[in-house]
Amino acid sequence: MTDFAISPEALQTQITETLGSKAKSVTLALGEVTVVVSAADYRAVATLLRDAPGCRFEQLIDLCGMDYSGYREGEWEGERFCVVSHLLSVSLNQRVRLKVFVPNEDLPVVDSLTSVWNAAGWFEREAFDLYGIVFEGHDDLRRILTDYGFIGHPFRKDFPVSGHVEMRYDPDQKRVIYQPVSIEPREITPRVIREDNYGGLH
């Protein structure tokens, strides 16, 4: 591992030159480089970032889904779902963030990166489970955190906080059962207490 990474500005230039027209944008903010690519170029870009001499991002250290609905008070006009990956080059001591916006809100589908980095397997299952993003080419895409009978995707912003079903033990049937949520939504109004001399202030 090198003692010193190149500057973020140099990394931005290197990645821009490596990806060329395959990158929609390569930006630098707060000392971090972010690459945005189209869904059509996603796997090809990932392979380039792994193999190109000036990049050599051998490790995928994180991958998650994002739901942009309601982002910036509804000012967002792009695709609703996004997949964000964080890549590490141990050999060159540098990092990059890779983002792809997934087309089709009703059935968001994007290529799997399991053929590029094995570590993508469980991360993509998590993004599928929580956001409903389908990763084409993943050989075992099933829920990983919620139950197999779970309805919906709980990290989507339109998913109700109380969920759709609840689980409880039924003493008559002597087993765990699922039933519609029995919690009625209610608005919570904060209780304000006003005291003279509160905290010793006059």
Structure description:
With 202 residues, the chain is an alpha/beta fold. The protein has a domain at 8-146: 2-Layer Sandwich (Beta Polymerase, domain 2). The chain has three helices and nine strands. The protein has helices at residues 8-19, 42-51, 120-131, and strands at residues 23-29, 32-37, 59-67, 81-89, 94-102, 109-111, 134-136, 165-170, 175-180. The strands form three sheets. The protein has a five-stranded mixed sheet with strand order 1-2-5-4-3. A two-stranded parallel sheet has the order 6-7. β4 (81-89) and β5 form a beta hairpin. The longest helix is centred in the first third of the chain and has 12 residues, at 8-19. The N and C termini lie far apart (62 Å).
Topology diagram in text:
Elements: H1 8-19, E1 23-29, E2 32-37, H2 42-51, E3 59-67, E4 81-89, E5 94-102, E6 109-111, H3 120-131, E7 134-136, E8 165-170, E9 175-180
Parallel strand pairs: 2-5, 6-7
Antiparallel strand pairs: 1-2, 3-4, 4-5, 8-9
